[in-house]
Amino acid sequence: MRKMFLLLFTLSTFLINAQQKVNETLKKELDEIMKVDQGYRMLFDSEITPEKREKLLKDLNIDKEEFEKKNWQLVAEHDSLNMQKIENIISKYGYPGKTLVGEPTNQAAWYVIQHSTKIGKYLPLIKEAGKKKEIPFTWVAMMEDRYLMNENKEQIYGTQGKGEMTKDKDGKQLFINFVWPVKDPKNVNKRRKEAGFDSTVEENAQRMFGKDFKYETYTLQQVFEIRNKNK
Q: How does pLDDT run across 26-38, given as a tens digit for each residue?
């Protein structure tokens, strides 16, 4: 009985200590940052109803006229402000992962960095957070893919899509969506599975571009040709 009591006491102490590790003040700050990051983007969701958009504008304290005037510029402004906050947090705590702020708050810094121009600077930190299980490896994979795409290099896991304005054979302007070129595309789904993704590259493409989208492999050369047509 004494041994059982000691075991329960030790377990309770462990759980309490685990809970105490969560920085509630930081968690609250990051939750607010993520609310802004995701909320502003939801405003541009084609499937959102006018009623939900109105409510979202109110929840985010956004003036409707200012939103209609600035549009994506408003998102860029808040992305910049959020990035400043995240950099201050990282300088003090390192990456705010699940040990420090719990889940899903450990997503907040990742989202802000993913939407910034500073992925190259923070990708090593993200990889380290993934290695320590502070964030899922799938998030590491998505950020690495975006970094490679931004560098005009082949991505690894097929997580990133792109839209480009080009011209058809008759010279008319045409906007096309495609999955950014993937290294060794024949084995991409094997790599995705090993990384922890529960969808194929084809399924992910439909998630990005719609259920009727048909995945096709592109090479970097084809992408550069698409861009050149619109010059």
A: 999 999 999 999 9
What does pTM read for this prediction?
Answer: 0.86
Confidence band for 21, pLDDT divided at 50, 70 and 90: confident
Helix (H, G, I), strand (E, B) or coil at 182: strand
DSSP 38: H
97-111 mean pLDDT: 97
Backbone angles phi, psi at 14, to 5 degrees: -60, -45
DSSP assignment of 136-178, as one string?
-HHHHHHHHHHHHHHTT--BSS---EEEEEEE-TTS-EEEEEE
Helices (H) and strands (E) in the chain, counts: 12, 2
* Amino acid code (one letter) for 206: Q
Q: For the chain, what are the domain ranges?
A: 23-135, 153-230
Residue 130, token pair as written in the block:
């993934």
